[in-house]
């Protein structure tokens, strides 16, 4: 099973990831964690680093091609081999990349979701978009010792929250796969998210053909 956690910075992705990893391991499931990018193509890496810093690529098509190339390398060398041994939880994946492209290149996020959905890569059986209120996310970010990154200022965070909602809708339209949208603001929210992820993990373990 491939599980993708998506959402703005400070939404609670790492917290959910760590809880799911710990709970799944305690139940005896083989599960690993991967990041958003492969970093296996020098050209794609240069483009991605620029995007993460808020710099647009030379052209919109070049940016889309670079991240699609990286996603396909990520699938071939990281996702597929790891999935052959068990389940995988990705802390950010396709929707986060689509939102980054849309933010930097100022185009509708649905365009990039459509482009990335065509990549030769496994699709998550469960995508979770954390819809935590941006103001709470800002409070959490203020408590971190690391400097703010591009896209983590209050105005951009609110804009990205809307993009993730649009990306989730576009993903379901393009792939037919449902997206769970849930905030991670309280202990109850966290418990519900972890329970939903574990339920899907157990279901996939009982029916290997769904992994």
UniProtKB/TrEMBL annotation:
Record flagged with keyword Transferase: yes
Domain of life from the UniProt record: Bacteria
TM region positions: none
InterPro entries the UniProt entry points to: P-loop_NTPase, Thymidylate_kin-like_dom
Pfam short name (any one): Thymidylate_kin
Keyword Transferase attached: yes
EC numbers, comma separated: 2.7.4.9
Assigned keywords, A-Z: Kinase, Transferase
Domain Thymidylate kinase-like as annotated: residue spans: 5-150
GO molecular function term, any single one: dTMP kinase activity
Protein name in UniProt: dTMP kinase
